[in-house]
Each structure stands twice: as structure tokens, then as C-alpha cells.
Amino acid sequence: MVSTGTVYELANDAYQVKVILVGREVQVHLHDLATGFDLADGPYLYRATRPCEEGSLVATGLRDVEIRVCGEEMSITGVLAGLRVEHVLRLPRVRAMMEERITLRNLTDSTISLTGFAAGMQRRIADGAGTIAPELVADRLIAVPFRHRATDPSGMDMDFQMADLIQRPGLEHRATDRPLRFAYGSMPSMQWASEGWAWTHGDHVFGFFKFNQEAMEFSVLAPEVYDDGLALRFGGASMVAGDPSALRQIRPGQTVELGITRYETRKGDYRQAYYAFRAFLDENGCHFPEGFNPPVHWNELYDNPEWNLGTPGNPPGPRMTRPVTYTRELIEVEARKAVAYSCEALYLDPGWDTDFGTLLWGRDWLGPRDQFVRKMREKYGLGLSLHCPLATWMSMDGRGVPSWPVEALQMDAKGNVIPGAICLGSKQYLDEATKRLLAHCADGVVFLMFDGNWWNGGCWNPNHGHPVPYTMEDHIRANLELARRVHERYPHVLIEMHDMIAGGSVDRYTPVYYKYGLPGSYDDNWGFELMWRPMDDILSGRARSLYYYNLGCNVPVYLHIDLRDDNEHCVVLWWYASTCRHLGIGGTHSNPAVAQAQRQAMQTYRSLQRFYKQGEFYGIHEEAHIHVLPDESAFVINLFNLSDDTRIISGSIAVEEMGLHRDRWYIMPKGVWFDPNSGTVSVSCRMQPWSAETIEIRSITSS
Ligand SMILES: [Zn+2]
Q1: pLDDT less than 50: residues of the chain
Q2: How do residues 603-637 score in pLDDT, each as one tens digit?
Q3: C or N terminus of the chain, fewer CB within 10 Å?
Q4: How far is the CA of 243 from the centre of ligand 1 (A)?
Q5: Strand pairing partners for 455?
């Protein structure tokens, strides 16, 4: 393309950015120095949609554009749909990466409501007939960190060719919009959204990732159609399913600062982009704390009658089965199992509370809480952990609602109280829930699971102390607030937070790091509900989501799996041990030989637990995982044969990629060898169908 406008340039070790202003058009050329490849090569897209009398007004391109280069930054400013846009590209001198930030300011004296917003680099990928350019045919676009989500159909990955952008519609997630209901899903869209993307080109991968702790925001890929060709839009910022919601109401004088986009190129395949994203999150405080040592849980749920009750009729209500199904004697049987399976804490699922969601201790059948906690600790050496279903799930269940202040009931948009629907964000609920949760902590409880906390459509009650209407972001802040209040008094009590929009479902709605690492925030993410049928989740591929998550994110995942699904090779136990930093188990296998194998496997797990709780995670492929303790010059390889055939599972990885020194002696277990020429460690193991192997490798020079 021949341009005659003013040229502005900025470069560092990674990229060269050339911006050319031709009339109103801001052309951005992003040249990748490692590959010599032009990642962006045309007009930067600025587009905003506003309602108007005739329907909608779509504004494109900036007016009154000014461009400045100052030090490491280039800023592009202008006006779009009445908003002043400040668009900054930063190329640090000392880092081989680029960052981008967009800020919008309403300079008018009326509120601006956007129904759509898109800004991004563009790269021409096809001609006017939709034929993909030859140099891009082999490239791939892979979602980070979910190449496969737990909700994706078996066999479908977020791993595209350029041509797929023509052939497949995009997707946008959706969540429940009504009280007393629970639903999630997706709608077709003209864009694909993910925390980040990996774009592979030759032997390099280019990553672009979004980070925003103030508003839900995603990195977007979108095809942009022009008369003479097709462009790929990426980077920048986009509205996805109405988020970031601040764009829907920008008040006069208000500034909306959107999240940061990080661009980074690395040599290697898509995994290198995953590691780059993970490092980006780490830099922003989204990394498990030093010495992270969550207690391994035994969950009583799977062997306990309370959760497994059914009836073919209609027994007289209300259901009050807990005094029979959740006795001290039954729970002590579970505590003995916890010890036999080398667990560190007993996790109590529903039944410990007076009724579902009350968060009140079932003293009538469990005795005084402080005595119970002490007995667990002194007699069994176990901590005590509690399931805490919050307002939303309790409202759908209904049983625990009468124990909460009536002032906490939700109101609809017309001001009608919604019977039975407790508002999680109401000060009345939060104050009382804080009191009840702190009482557990005061008696020595070590872990709280915040479950049943999903979004249920908002609240218009003006007496709740939350904004009216109460939005998804308000709901997320309320969840966080409850964690903060507990952590303020008990910073070492671990809090697991289910997805604050999708709750206890297989869906992950919020960005994987969302609100983690903020003061007083939660400690664990939820493992996408893959607890009930863990073998089926492996068979269907749903459990692959945990492997990809671990490659791309150091926020710990918690899951407690049903061991009754496992086989004699303990493939279920090891898969989840290898992919969840905080492990819970439960359920006695019907085959005593399998149960015995599991108890032995748990002894091995406990002896190696630092690798799984605190190690750096790397993947050779889905069936070969590595957990590294660089300070100990040691690592563990977990191999899996996830197939019906006996196979040789093998793979290689450079030891420096794992942060280990090449010039050392390591003890090589059977099936493991090093290649001094390439600096790699290789492993090869003949494995039976649906089996797992655990191999520990240590340096002898570490002492
Ligand atoms: Zn409310």
C-alpha cells in the first residue's frame, strides 16, 4: 500500500511500529523483528455504536487525530462517537514486548451509551474472494488459556486456521438473567473472545493477551470484511456480551480506562504463548503465594447418605434428614478414611449446616463446633473445611432462606420484592454472612468454599447499599467483598471462589484471573465442576481444560474428585493431582484392590506434594506433564495413556525451558535420558490403557 501521510515510528527489541496518518486514517504497521513478519498492515479500526433516533449510529475512525511519540510511547488521540480516545502503544526499551492501552473520556455534557465498541490492529488475511493468503495458510490461532474449555463439545478445540474465520461463526458467552434460575450458554457472534490468543507462524508464536481487574474484558479475534479483502482484527479492545459494562453508560466528564493488551513473540509452538500469558499474569500478582501449601481434602460427600438421598414419593416436609444422615459418628468414619488416604483436612459438603445455605453450624447433630474442630485436629490430625453455598443457590433451593433477614430479599425493576430470592450483594446478607463465616474461622476452620454465588439477574432494592440496578460487576464485587471481610480477620483461612457469574457449573465466564491477587481476595479457583464423573470427564475430553488452564495460569485450581470412578492404575487420581494445585478426593471404590492402590498413590502424592502445589507446570503434550522445583533442581514427570490401546508415551523438553541448569548431573530413572547436544530430557514409557506413571528426577549437585 502506498501512503503519503506523516510517518511516526517506534521500535524496541521485539517490534517496529510504523504509524502513518493519511487524512483521518491511522494506519498501523506492526513488524515482528524475530520473524520479519508484518502482524498488522493496514488501518487501525476504531468503531463505536450509539443508539440514535433512527436506531443506531455506527461511528468509525477518529476525528481530529493527533499522534505523538514520546520516549517509549506513542499516543494516538482523537474523537470517536463524542468520546475522546487516547490510544497508547508502549514499546519498553528493556523488554521484548509491546503494551497497548485505550482510554475513553466523555467530553460532552450528556451520557454516552455504547451498544458496541471495537478497536484493533488489522492484518489482511484473504483477497476479495475469501482466498487465504498463501503465507498464512499454515498459521493457527489458539485461545489462551483454553485451547479446550470444559464446555466445548468433544473434538472441538479453540484452535483455528485462518480459513475457519470465514467458515465458523464466533461465539459470545451468556449467563442467567433471572432470579431463581441458573443457566449459561453462548450465542453466535462476529467475534471470538478469550483471555488471550496464540498466533503460530512458522517456528514462532505471537501472543496477544488482555488484562483488566476493573471490568470483565477479553482479547478478541474478528474477521473484518472489505470489498477487496478480509482482515483479521486483533488486540485493542472490544465489547463482548455487553462487557466492559462501563461503556454502556459513560457519564459527562467520566473516563473509562480499558485493560492492557500485552503483545509478545516467542520461538516455539503455542505453549510458549501460554507461558508468556502466565508470566504476564504473574507480573500482575496472579500467582499462588510463596510456600503455597493447601491441605489435601477428604470430601465426605461421596460416601455420605445426605447428598445421595432420593425418594419415589413425597415424604412430609420440610426435609430434615441431617440429624440422621450427618451424625458425628458418620463423619468420624469419614475422618478415619481421610487419614487412611493421607489427607490433611476433612471437607464437609452440605449437611454440616442447619439447613441448606444457612451457614449456621448443625450443633444438634454435630455437637459444639469448637469441640468438633478440636477433635478432628487432636484425634485425627485433620483440619476442618466447609462448603458454603451463598445467597443465589440458597434462593433457588429455598430451604435456608428463612434464616436470613427479610430485608435482604431482592427487588425487581418495578420495585416488587421477589419472594425467596436473597440478594448476595445486599448489606443485610453480607453483614450476616460475614458474622456467620467469622464464627467458623474463630473456632479453627481452615477452608471455606464459596459456592452457589452465580449471577441471577440483578436487584433494584434501594435499601441494599449496592448500586441500583445491581450489575454483574457489582455482584462480582460483592463476592470479593465477602472474601475480603473473612481475610481481614483470618488471612490464612483459604477461600475457594466459584466463578462469580457462572457459579458451580462447567462454564468459566469471568477471566481466569479475575480479581485474584487483589487485597484480601480469594485463594483458589474452581475446577469447572469436574468432580462428579471425573473418569467420564477424562474420556470426553472435558478434563483437558485443566491441563490447558495450568499451562496458562498460576492461580490455583481446587477440585475434589469422586475416586469411585477410578481404575487400578489410579489414572483419575493422578490426572487431577497433576492438573489441580489444590487437591481433594473422596468416595470409597467398590473394588478393594483399587482402593488400596489409591491409598498407596496418595502416599506417593504426599511425598511429592511440593511439586504439585508449588512447582512450575510445563506440558510436553496432554499426556506428559512436568512439575518443576527449580530451587531443588528437581522435577516430576506425570505420564498418561488416555486410550484403549497399550502405547509408548514419550516426549522431550529442554531443561532450560523448565528453568533448570544444564550443567549438572541428574539421576535418571528408567525410561528417562538426557541429550547433552540439545540440552533436553526425554522420556519414553510403555503404558497400559488408561494408566498413569509418576517419575521423579533429581540433581545430585543440589546439596
Ligand atoms: Zn440487592
Answers
A1: 1-3, 702-703
A2: 999 999 999 999 999 999 999 999 999 999 999 99
A3: C
A4: 21
A5: none
Q: Convert the pLDDT of each residue in 115-166 to its tens digit.
A: 999 999 999 999 999 999 999 999 999 999 999 999 999 989 999 999 999 9
The structure's pTM equals 0.97
- Let me know: does 564 contact 531? Beta carbons within 8 Å: no
Residue 457 CA to ligand 1 centre (angstroms): 10
Would you state the pLDDT for residue 224?
Answer: 97
CA of 454 to the centre of ligand 1 (A): 14
State how far the Cα of 432 lies from the Cα of 420, in Å rounded to an integer.
Answer: 17
**Rounded CA gap, 430 and 647, in Å?**
54
Alpha-carbon gap, residue 37 to 16, rounded angstroms: 11
Cα(176) to centroid(ligand 1), Å = 16
Ligand 1 centroid vs 336 CA: distance in angstroms? Answer: 43
Q: State the distance from the centre of ligand 1 to the C-alpha of 474, rounded, in angstroms.
A: 10
Q: How remote is the CA of residue 110 from the centroid of ligand 1, in Å?
A: 28
Please state, in angstroms and as integers, the Cα–Cα distance from residue 51 to each residue in 243, 253, 339, 471, following that order: 17, 19, 63, 21
Q: What residue ranges define each of the domains in the chain, with the CATH number in brackets?
A: 6-283 (2.70.98), 297-613 (3.20.20.70), 634-699 (no CATH)
CA distance 680 to 533: 37
Ligand 1 centroid–CA 330 distance in Å is: 39
Ligand 1 centroid distance, CA of 82 (Å): 33
Cell 472435558, residue located:
542
Q: Tell me how crowded residue 308 is: count the other CB atoms within 10 A of its CB.
A: 10
Q: What was the pLDDT predicted at 1?
A: 42
Contacts of 539 (CB under 8 A, 6+ apart): none
Q: How far apart are CA 323 and CA 327, in angstroms?
A: 6
